[in-house]
Amino acid sequence: MNMENQTSIAVVFALVVMLIPVAIAINAHNQTNTALADENARIDNLVPSGYWPLDENGGLIAYDHSGNGNNGTLMNGAAWLAAWDWHVKFGSSSVDFDGIDDYIYVPATDSLDFENAMTVMAWVAFEWSGGDLGIASMGGSIDEWPSWQLLYSEDSGRIAFKFGEADGYVESISAIVEYRWYHVAVTFENYRVKLYVDGMLQDVAEHYAVVPPMNGIMHIGADYFDRNPGAFMSGWIDDVQVFDHALSSSQVAGYARQGGNFERILLYTLREEDSVLEVNNWETGDVLFWIEGNGILHVISGIRMEAGASLEVAEGGGYVNVNKRRIVTLSADNVNNNAVANTLQNCGNLSFSVTAGTVYRFYALIMYTSAATSTGSRWTINGPANPTLLAYTSRYFLTATTQTLNYATAYQIPAASNATSATAGNIAIIEGIITPSANGTLAIRFASKIANSAITAKAGSTLEWW
Length: 466
Prior knowledge:
Blueprint: E1 9-13, E2 19-26, H1 34-39, E3 50-52, E4 61-62, E5 72-75, E6 79-82, E7 93-98, E8 103-106, E9 118-126, E10 133-140, E11 148-153, E12 158-163, E13 167-171, E14 182-189, E15 192-197, E16 200-206, E17 214-220, E18 223-225, E19 228-230, E20 234-243, H2 249-258, E21 264-270, E22 276-279, E23 286-290, E24 303-304, E25 310-314, E26 320-323, E27 326-329, E28 334-336, E29 345-354, E30 360-370, E31 377-382, E32 389-397, E33 403-408, E34 426-435, E35 440-448, E36 455-457, E37 462-465
Parallel strand pairs: 21-23
Antiparallel strand pairs: 1-2, 2-21, 3-20, 4-5, 5-8, 6-7, 7-20, 8-17, 9-14, 9-20, 10-11, 10-17, 11-12, 12-13, 14-15, 15-16, 18-19, 22-25, 23-24, 25-26, 27-37, 28-36, 29-35, 30-34, 30-36, 30-37, 31-35, 32-33, 32-34
């Protein structure tokens, strides 16, 4: 369970006439930051109904810093861990749970009794012990089921939340691993339950009712069933908060960002003169946040990106469009009836720019017609010379029940057209991966088997890349 805590932060400022980008590189999945503990409940001046920083590092009381006096009691040997240990996410300590019977008991109080809206969130790291692992739960008042429960589900290997027995069930997209800090948050408002992990929306479910009745007793580090704690946490919990309203996605992302759970964070200021900012150099794990023109950080959007994705942000940050795939559509029919048989030509505007050293994936879907059934075709790609990596397939009509299928690691393969086509309703599909060694353009190309006999790529055909 010993993991070295390494934090390195590099800040680079680049001033441009119209745009000020600030890139912050953070290699700090297990970052300890004492200063952030005191600030962690203050994004947009939000006031929680209950806030347990878990920084006491001694004694049996987990003090509530919300001002509502909802102090908790460490039960059955739940232990403090000091800040030098990687197991502490914020402040001077966190709580270690043994997975057997440890939990924190928070007595009944009206300030934690929600009805129409709520948010619960915490930092958690797990150590598998078998069975479900409770993160936080609220006791129910009418039957054996809790009002709500946030937990790790052993059956799915994911973070889950539900009201009562199984209402409004939401679950994280990816499986959870041991010995890694996660920021977990759930919001409920307007009959919608939303689950976030590390600031990213994971799942949404409908719950057409109010929050189930509560008995007011909250458990941290345990589930609540039949009015008793269970599914005891095995691992570590830090910085737990609950609110009597639903936080916005940007506010949730703000709390997650404070923990440094991102490989790289890009911060941009857009001046009034600029209408659209487009960023195309994303790396896997990148997250976008926004800095308002006055230089004060205000999280409008926190979005985890994939390699090669692009994102457009309208002026003032009011509109965010994430395109994990870019797409171009053939704007007009493109005819190849060259006087020389089997002569390749570019397929209109079905192309995209590439940068040396960047990995791209692409997928083209082309509809085409043929002047005669005896007029075959070939479909391929071209791009900058000597790519570092290139592999693709092309497949297209041969007969009503067969197709021509090519596997290629060089441009403009195959060398010859196939024998036949249908006069209408043909489809060509080209998909693959490329890492160019030089900047340039990747283009879809095609040819006709017979001189002066048209193969026509139809408008509306598409090329996607990411």
